[in-house]
Amino acid sequence: MLASAESTFPVDLAIIPPSTIMSTALRRSVFNIARTARVVAAPNRTTTLVRSAFVYKSYSAAAGLSREDVQTRVLDVLKSFEKVDPSKITTAAKFTDDLGLDSLDAVEAVMAIEEEFSIEIPDAEADEITTVQQAIDYIVNTPEAH
Q: Start and end of every Carrier domain (predicted)?
């Protein structure tokens, strides 16, 4: 992050909770906007590179999640969505057809699952996850999931 002797940008990135920034693309966008705004607001000031203020979870070893644990947590994440009828949630349920989510809601569901398991699913792979079972299978086969 670029910093100057006097901050002229109205939002300090250090105060944004990491949980509100869900994707790498969003983090990059926030970073670039902040950097551009500071440089534009103070073009004649000397700037220095400072370490990013984003906090990441780290673990000492793989959690070794069982399929049952993953299934329970994925179902719980989906139950937290207001638009989803909890009685319709099964492992075979499709996000759009069975749970009644539109495409944006389905993306939000996958993002919530990413957050629950502290992983980032690449966009191309996330687009392929259209059922609860596919989400469970992806998490089970991802060693970084916790």
A: 68-143
Given a contact cutoff of 8 angstroms between Cβ atoms, the answer to whether 39 and 45 are in contact is: no
Closest CA to 98 of 109, 114, 87: 87
pTM: 0.57
117: its two tokens: 């398991």
Q: Which domains does the chain have, with CATH numbers?
A: 2-49 (no CATH), 67-140 (1.10.1200.10)
Which residue(s) pair with 123 in the sheet?
Answer: none
**Strand duo 48-49 + 2-3: pairing:** antiparallel
Burial profile 30-67: b = 16 or more Cβ within 10 angstroms, e = fewer: bbeebbeebeeebeeeeeeeeeeeeeeeeeeeeeebee
Number of C-beta neighbours around residue 121 at 10 A = 20
Which residue among 12, 69, 85, 102 is the active-site one?
Answer: 102
Gap between the Cα atoms of 129 and 136, Å rounded: 10
Which structure tokens are listed for 145? Answer: 């999931």
Q: What angle do CA 81, 83, 86 make, to 5 degrees?
A: 70
pLDDT band at 60 (very low <50, low <70, confident <90, very high): very low
Is residue 102 part of the annotated active site? The answer reads yes
